[in-house]
Write the structure tokens for this entry.
Amino acid sequence: MISVEEARERIAALLSPLEAEQVPLAEAGGRVLAAPVRAARTQPPFRTSIMDGYAMRSADARPGHTLPVVGEAAAGRAFDGSVPAGCAIRIFTGAPVPDPLDRVVIQEDVRRDGDRITLNNRIEAAAFIRPVGADFETGMELGAPRRLGPADIALIAAMGVATLPCIRQPRIALIATGDELVMPGAEVGPDQIVASNSFGLKAMLEASGARCRLLPIARDTVADLQAVLRLAEGSDLIVTIGGASVGDHDLVQTAAEGAGLSLDFYKIAMRPGKPLMAGRLGDATLIGLPGNPVSAMVCGQVFLRPMLDVLAGLGLQPMDTRTATLTRPMGPNGPRAHFMRATVERRADGLHATPAERQDSALLSVLSASNALLIRPPHDPARASGDPVEVMQL
Ligand SMILES: Nc1nc2c(c(=O)[nH]1)N[C@H]1C(S)=C(S)[C@@H](COP(=O)(O)OP(=O)(O)OC[C@H]3O[C@@H](n4cnc5c(N)ncnc54)[C@H](O)[C@@H]3O)O[C@H]1N2
Ligand code: MOO
């Protein structure tokens, strides 16, 4: 059995970054920028008043001084006359400051009487003018690859760029397998249960930018599994759920190999998640997840989500773990890394982690009530309350 980290690396090595496509800015949030974008303009493009008040020459900004007001500049409506020495114009936040004025006195520091203002005896010392290009200059580059957050999208809009090259979204086929499964809402026989994992994984992966197709549930026969695998054609990633273990009805590997799977590995030193498999099938990477609901979701978190970064050209990122203080003792761990469902809370002295009482890999209610995985390495010795542990926020 290989380690969790080796499995992550081997799956990443089965994937290549996807190609780019042009995306309208309004749809680019969360997407990965494929090539640098350059500012088509300078921001701000003119000297800008950053306050509501009166613009003048600094030589005229003397406490107690009186000036005539000879015009007005507002955002989107510049003052286009000339301002004689000793005069001021009314100005508002966002308006261009006309040359040669170099000082804005805020209106709180002024008394106005008709067309004249008198400056207070104490006035703010700042000029309240934002220089040209204070934010960025034409040609400034936002580098790639980069996952675009909300601030990036606002910046690119300000740059004047309306469409941009992004890596296309990965296409993922999700295949639930098992004679016992029915779709949510369908009639459930006495020996059946409702398929849940494919829905949880779809929500997880789509929240991370993938496009998922839920294929029909495959029954536990090689023929049916292969028929559904054929429906997955055109996907970048095929994810099967269940049928991965050693029972007589666990046929996913046999069916996939019959369909041309080149298996890279099977079984990892992880709990839950032991029967994980990965390989290449046609143009796609196939990942076979264990069927137990929590196993599938934990494997989704540890193996599938990071692969979206790899497909986007960002490379395999390290697992995002933090150190927390354990709130109750735990016995020694066995030979597999244990990803325990846990609750992490932030207290004044840092993070505190409490593993759930029940760690059965079928209990979705426990997973749903957890907000973190507490990660124990293989053969981790017994731990006492107060010990440091590694956690991964869900
Ligand atoms: N003799 C052994 N038995 C088992 C081993 C082993 O090493 N030796 N490994 C156990 C471990 S660990 C796991 S995990 C499971 C995984 O088995 P499979 O991947 O073959 O999963 P299934 O048998 O198909 O299903 C397991 C369980 O999960 C339910 N299931 C399956 N798919 C779904 C779905 N889409 N939605 C909801 N629930 C699902 C299924 O009904 C079963 O209850 O094997 C152990 N056995
Ligand atoms: O590895 Mo299984 O996924 O322990 O339940």
Remarks:
- The first helix runs from residue 4 to 13.
